[in-house]
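Quick one: structure for this chain?
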Amino acid sequence: MVSHSELRKLFPSADAVCFDVDSTVMREGGTDELAKMCGIEGAVSEMTQRAMGGALTERLPLIQPSREQVQRLIAEHPGNLTHHIR
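Got it. Here's what it folds into:
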């Protein structure tokens, strides 16, 4: 984590910015949906509950999705914005 003042300095010069919008801007969690598609929803859901902060690096190796599965997830489950997001 960086301070707000550090972020204000870094942001304008960034080549790319990545935001985690699962279950905040988007109503569903993409990692949980991918785990469901790959048949291991229970294990990943339990892991998610244990460690919401930084759990992505633990969950993705368990899911081991192929590129095709990720593309299918995106095609079959387009994101739905949370009600308060326009």
